[in-house]
Every structure is written in C-alpha cells, then in structure tokens.
Write a structure and sequence with these properties.
Radius of gyration: 16 Å
Protein name: DUF1326 domain-containing protein
InterPro entries: DUF1326, UCP033303
Low-confidence stretches: none
Structural class: mainly beta
Number of domains: 1
Mean pLDDT: 94
Pfam family, one: DUF1326
Helix content: under 10%
Number of strands: 16
Number of helices: 2
Organism: Dongia soli
Shape: globular
Order of helices and strands: EEEEEHHEEEEEEEEEEE
Amino acid sequence: MAYVDWKIRTKQIGTCSCDYGCPCEFNARPTRLPCEGVMAMEITEGYFDKIRLDGLRIAGVYRWPGPVHEGKGIWWSIIDKVATDEQAEALFTIFGGKEQEPTTGFSIYASTIETEPEPLRATIGFEWDLQGRRGRFVVEDVLAAEIEPILNPVTGKPHLSAIRLHEGFEFREAEMASATFWSKGALEQNHAKRYAAISYVTYGPFGIVPEESHPRRSA
C-alpha cells in the first residue's frame, strides 16, 4: 500500500500505572488494573507530505480495563495550541495510524481504542533530559507528570537502567525512570513512583526508523 510521505523525530515521555519496567514490554499482564497513564512528546523535526511539524507537541491520557492488547481502551488526545488546523489534522492522521502499516506502533494502539473524548487544543509544557533521566510535562488544569531517576532503596543513589527491544513498535530503547502524575476529568487518575520511559524515537509510515531511534545517553 502507498502511504503519504511523512516522518517525525520525537523526544518523548511515557508513563503508566504499572511498576517500574512495565510488563507490557515483556508480553506480561499489568501489575495493576486498570492500565492507565499519561504521555507527551515533542516533534524536534517532522513533516507530513508538505506540512511541516517541527516543534509541535502532543499529549495523551489513556486507560485500558485490562492488558492493552485486549482493547476497549480510552484515549484522550491533546494537541499543541500553536498548531494550525492543517498541522493538527496531519497529527491526528499520523497518531491515528491512518497512514502507517497495520502492524506498526500508531496503528496497533489505534486498534485497541474504543472511546475517544473530544480532542483538546492546549499549551503543553514539556521538559526532557534523557541523560539525567528527568523530565516533566503539564497541561494546566488537565494533567501533569514529574519524572526523576529510580532510586536504589538501600543507598538512595540513582538506579540507572534501560529497556532495549529488538522489535519494539513503541521504542527500541528507552531509559527507565520514576513518574509521579495525575490527570483530571473523565480519565481522572493519580499515581506516584510508577513506570516512566524516556526515549528518542523516529517514526514513519513503516514504523520506527531504527538508525535514528537510539537514545543519546551516557552511563
């Protein structure tokens, strides 16, 4: 199938209500139900056909009653307020998996979603420090997440770790961190010291672009 030519290079932070490591990454069941969380990403460079997407941000709030692959999920999209209508439509097309192979990331997630509240256009604050295993993102009165290193329970020092997936569709490698986050409204949630993944990933119509998707990190 022929797809629209597009590519986005992203800095991203994903969180969920699971313990550190997230069983989904190992084809195991969630550590608690429902499975829920918040995420945000910044497109450092990107395009959809002739539409430039550089610098735009998106965020999401989500919940699945069971493991993600069992479906019946809810996904609430938040699009950068500064995006034009044309840019916003391009983002909805990309993240809705409409111009991507069915067996790749955005298409896979889209297939698990049953309910989508009306998208929100808002200012998305976003900070990302891959080497420091830190970050934060916020949409005023809607959601917020604070990311910090996982701490060794004995020494109190940062416990540095990463997940590397040979065939991951969300990321191929991500730094693990600790997330404290909340959201309001229909998907209200509040979690402390849960799973967080910080990653640098490039996507296109056929999924992850591997050579451009390795975290820039140091020990």
